[in-house]
UniProtKB/TrEMBL annotation:
Organism: Psychrobacillus psychrotolerans
GO molecular function, one term: steroid dehydrogenase activity, acting on the CH-CH group of donors
UniProt-recorded name of the protein: Tricarballylate dehydrogenase
Keyword Flavoprotein assigned: yes
Pfam family of the protein (one): FAD_binding_2
Needed cofactors: FAD
Keywords: FAD, Flavoprotein, Oxidoreductase
FAD-dependent oxidoreductase 2 FAD-binding domain sequence ranges: 8-468
């Protein structure tokens, strides 16, 4: 053992959940050390790869504006934020989990979401409205849909930088290239944590540990073991360090697990992009069609706003022959392509006719595709199109319906994007209480052990509402950090 440290609270990980925990503990006077396995340049975990978009409940546009001190009257007048109540947020999490979510945690997530936005704002995180990606401009007004209206300035990187600066200002010490290896526990109480700094083993004596080291999406072996065959070969998005080491550490000291261990957030994106590269996702599918190797559609691309469907589409692509698909758009649909469709490295083919397009795709059944598009076009209902609402412009009589935004694919030039499945994060994790305490297998808390963020299980099953990951990390990170600090204070008082 090369070196021994001491702290009140040790936080494992330096992404959003971890830094919220660190700030909350430091705010309460705790001495905090953060351990991050990556280098400083790569800091921030999956959080760095996000747009920094956060889902939170609000009653009206004024409440959103209160988080945007720099918004002008002119900008506000052309923005319709609508409302998104706590009840709607709670219902979205419940509905998308097929009513299997932990209702206590889902309730806290929804109820605390606006307060945590205020708290983050007080800690120097700045926001901007997500114009374009979450609101289309129609008749001079940006009308938001889908419960996600703000993102951090500078995206995920901006969020991570702001949280790190704030933590440092509050005296938090961050050790990079340092991993949490093993929890030291006696009588079901945290005594400290064994760590590895570069190649050196060390030990930190502490009363409390907050685990915020993400799930296991970047661990091929665990993916295959828990998610099943095929998941070994999917594209891996985001942070390469989220390999389940925090989960294993907790399980090794008897922590209880919960949730959808065979489920994961997985999207459709660029089939040929190497792992861990930014720009994978391709999320404008509601305005086109998705077809498989046989040329057949296989999902309802317009089932709901994309915030409520994108996280389950990767799994559907993985079920297709060859585990791939193509997104196809005509000129009308192309108007709605998000910025991730731009750039030279995007895998796409363009043609003036559908016959030429399928020829260029190369790996799709020609007749199957042409017949499918013809049938789709004939089935489109004559209803007005509106991208800002569930417009009911669906199809009639198809084996696989499209419920909204069904535009016929009939105006060239046409474009098709090669799509594969990409995993973002895993749903199974540690069982925590309302105070973010990690439970032991005997169902009582392991004293001094807390968890937040992706490492927590039981909130999402099968599907996920976009923007809830960061909010959950912030809400439960803040709770975990402040509860850890309170626990430490209580321990010292006893002595
Ligand atoms: C491309 C992409 C886009 C996304 N967009 C959004 C979005 O806009 N909005 C949203 O809400 N969610 C989004 N998500 C999901 C979101 O990233 C996560 O829900 C959230 O960032 C998880 O935060 P976290 O703090 O739990 O984990 P992370 O941010 O992943 O942090 C975990 C940290 O722990 C470190 N670590 C791992 N093991 C150890 C160890 N043993 N010791 C020390 N450190 C360790 C990792 O290096 C990492 O820094 C997106 C994800 C991706 C990949």
């Amino acid at each position: 053992m090369s070196q021994a440290w001491a702290a009140d609270v040790v936080v494992v990980g330096a992404g959003n959940a971890a830094m919220c925990a660190a700030i909350a503990a430091a705010e309460q006077g705790s001495e905090v050390i953060v351990l991050e396995i990556s280098s400083e340049e790569e800091k921030g975990g999956n959080t760095t790869y996000t747009h920094g978009s956060m889902r939170f409940a609000y009653n009206n546009g004024e409440e959103v504006r209160a988080l945007l001190p720099e918004m002008t009257d002119e900008e506000f007048s052309m923005t319709d934020f609508g409302d998104y109540t706590k009840e709607q947020f709670f219902e979205d999490v419940s509905r998308l989990s097929n009513y299997r979510t932990d209702y206590d945690l889902a309730n806290i997530l929804a109820k605390e979401s606006y307060k945590v936005m205020q708290w983050l704002t007080s800690h120097q995180v700045k926001w901007i409205p997500i114009y374009g990606r979450q609101a289309f401009k129609i008749n001079g007004i940006f009308k938001f849909w889908g419960g996600m209206v703000l993102e951090a300035v500078g995206g995920g990187k901006g969020l991570v930088d702001a949280l790190h600066q704030e933590a440092i200002r509050l005296g938090v010490r961050i050790l990079y290239n340092t991993s949490g290896v093993k929890l030291d526990i006696a009588n079901k109480r945290i005594q400290g944590i064994y760590i590895r700094e570069q190649k050196q083993d060390a030990y930190i004596q502490c009363k409390s540990v907050v685990l915020a080291s993400g799930g296991f999406h970047a661990n091929v072996e665990m993916r295959t073991k828990y998610l099943g065959p095929g998941w070994d070969s999917v594209h891996t998005r985001g942070c390469k360090f989220n390999t389940g080491t925090g989960l294993k550490m907790a399980i090794d000291v008897g922590a209880r697990t919960i949730g959808n261990w065979s489920g994961a957030h997985a999207v459709g994106g660029d089939r040929y992009l190497p792992n861990f590269k930014e720009g994978f996702q391709k999320l404008s599918y509601p305005f086109g069609i998705l077809i498989n190797k046989e040329g057949k559609r296989f999902i309802d691309e317009g089932e709901d706003f994309r915030n409520y469907t994108y996280a389950k589409i990767g799994k559907e692509i993985l079920k297709q022959p060859g585990q791939y698909a193509w997104q196809v758009f005509d000129t009308k649909g192309k108007r709605f392509l998000r910025e991730e469709y731009e750039g030279r490295s995007v895998s796409k083919v363009v043609a003036n006719t559908l016959e030429e397009l399928v020829e260029l795709m190369g790996d799709v059944d020609h007749e199957g595709f042409l017949t499918e598009v013809e049938n789709f076009n004939k089935a489109v209902m004559d209803v007005p199109f509106d991208p800002n609402m569930l417009d009911g412009k669906g199809t009639e009589g198809l084996r696989v319906p499209k419920s909204n935004w069904a535009l016929p694919i009939n105006e060239g030039p046409f474009v098709a994007y090669a799509i594969g499945c990409g995993i973002t994060f895993t749903y199974g994790g540690l069982h925590i209480t309302k105070k973010a305490q990690v439970l032991h297998e005997d169902t009582t808390p392991i004293e001094g052990l807390y968890a937040a963020g992706e490492i927590v299980g039981g909130i999402y099953y099968d599907n996920y509402p976009g923007g809830a990951g960061l909010t959950s990390g912030s809400v439960f990170g803040k709770i975990a950090g402040s509860q850890a600090a309170k626990y430490v204070q209580a321990e010292y008082q006893v002595k």
